[in-house]
Amino acid sequence: MKKVVLAFSGGLDTTFCAVYLREELGYEVITVTVDTGGFSGDELRRIEERAKSLQVSRHYSIDGRAFVYDKFISYIVKGNALRGNVYPLSVGAERVAQAVEVGKVAKEQGAEAVAHGSTGAGNDQIRFDVALGVLAPDKLILAPIRSLGWSRKKEAEWLKKRGVEVMLEVQDYSINEGLWGTTIGGKETHDSWEFPPETVFRKTKALREVPDRPREIQIGFEKGLPVSLDGSERGGVELIEELNRLAGEYGIGRGVHIGDTIMGIKGRIVFEAPAPMLVIASHRELEKLVLSKQQRFWKDHLGQVYGDMLHEGLYFDPVMRDIEALIDSSQRCVTGDTRVRLHGGTYMVIGVRSDFSLMKRDLAVYGEQQSLWDWRDAEGFSRVYGVPSRLHSLLSGEHAE
């Protein structure tokens, strides 16, 4: 029997795919669940039980958290990459990691096809298709949800007729939870004015439930990446998980993003990203202290390009390795500590320090005395600096009285 390897989350869409691929297309189905930080041990066991109940021939559970952090999150942080200046790219990197593992299993199992549960409207279909096309170019790519064009309600009804029950709330929202954030789509997110109910949020407390008193934390960085929390060294995955828990307790990390999809239409999601908000804000402030003006400008520009390409499924374009090289070079001195205050759903980076600080009190203090130049140098600089503006005014007469 021909084999297909399916990226499997255990949700409505991939549950439908597993049954449809077996019953309607005649495939032996192998499922792969890649934990990118969104599953507990109990949830992974339930997903495995779900897969077996759907009569798949084999199920793989793979821990992809370290891979996602090392290959993707690290550059999102170092590049200060935020889609639309708000969204920390919580999903795009996960899809690449999932495609990598699906491609590996497909080769090991000698499968003829690979499959995913993406629709025909969103970004995920492109991310999966492009990545799998690079990683498993000899495999047929199947996407039943896309090719059928069914609604989630119709999928649920089709499954119910075959004795497969799905939770009713699954029909209303599509929730993707990972190490780098949770995205929420469905119902209210399809309207640019509406907002989903409190019940859809998983990582952040409602403001009425957060602690009354503010709390300060310290995040330590080494060469652009967070390495400690309140002076205690942590691995990247552990630190992000702890910050998600800590900031989520204060209701921090919720946001809404409207943007252009890869297919050219507008899309809207609600997200929870407690750790990303704190880490990127802290990293940016530390860079302001240790990098030159031009370093920050060009690194942030290319960081945004990098984030956009990652989000749009182009991780394997060779220019991404070139951008990574520049970003890595820019982070040589981005080492130090940040102080962050958490209070009532908000956060503020209130302090930053580094041995590589360019803010030297013994040389110059903004608005006060300094030892790098004297008053004559400042006067001459001001005169020369204003020459282009003065010449334009003289020639155009725009500012003449």
From TrEMBL:
Record-linked PROSITE patterns: ARGININOSUCCIN_SYN_1 (PS00564)
UniProt subcellular location: Cytoplasm
Alphabetized UniProt keyword annotations: Amino-acid biosynthesis, Arginine biosynthesis, ATP-binding, Cytoplasm, Ligase, Nucleotide-binding
Binding positions for L-aspartate per the UniProt entry: 119, 123-124
Main location class: cytoplasm
Short name of one Pfam family: Arginosuc_synth
Pathway in which the depicted protein is active: Amino-acid biosynthesis; L-arginine biosynthesis; L-arginine from L-ornithine and carbamoyl phosphate: step 2/3
GO biological process terms held by the UniProt record: argininosuccinate metabolic process; L-arginine biosynthetic process; urea cycle
Residues that bind L-citrulline: 87, 123, 127, 174
Family to which the UniProt record says this protein belongs: Belongs to the argininosuccinate synthase family. Type 1 subfamily.
Protein name (record): Argininosuccinate synthase
Organism: candidate division WOR_3 bacterium SM1_77
Lineage: Bacteria, Bacteria division WOR-3
Gene name per UniProt: argG
